[in-house]
Each structure stands twice: as C-alpha cells, then as structure tokens.
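Example record used in the benchmark description.
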Amino acid sequence: KQAVKRAIRIGACNIYHACVHNFVHEKDDDILRSLYKSAVFVIQAVWFYEAGKYIKSKTELQQSINPPSVVLTTAQELKNGASVNFEEMSELLLNWSKAIIGGYAE
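Model output (structure tokens):
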C-alpha cells in the first residue's frame, strides 16, 4: 500500500513539474496532452489505493468515480481529438496534481 501511495505522489509531482515548465516555457499543446495521459495512470493508481481494485477501462474508471473526475474526462476528450484550451487545461491539471500531492504526502 505504501508503494502505491509513493507512486501516486511521484506521478503527481512529475505532472506538476512538467506542467509548470510547459506553461512557463514551452506552451506546447502536445506536451499538455501527454500530461493528461499520464494523469490517467495516476487516477488509476489512486482508485487502486482507495478501493483496492485495479480498473483498466477508462470508461469504467470514470463511472466508478463519484463525482466524475474532470481530469479524466478532459483526458478522454483530448484522446478523442478535442482541441486544447491551453491556459484553462493547464490550470486544471496544476490544481489537480497539487491536490494529489497534498493528499498523498507522507
């Protein structure tokens, strides 16, 4: 259980760091898309940590989370070709990863 918690925190820290760097320096939509993809793996790990069940399907994962995860919804929309609203999506991801980091601190 501690290894999963550590993986969640490390994943969220990596996303936060890369998102800040991208927001300040790169401003690259493709990087932001990849960060949302990475966030899905962290969300899967959070669900596993909290519920004790690994859910592979993103649809099933979204249906299991109440209320639904806006980050997961955004990741799915991006995967399906949605356009990037860079500032809004970056802010969402930064706030989400910050909350995860705080919630899974040692």
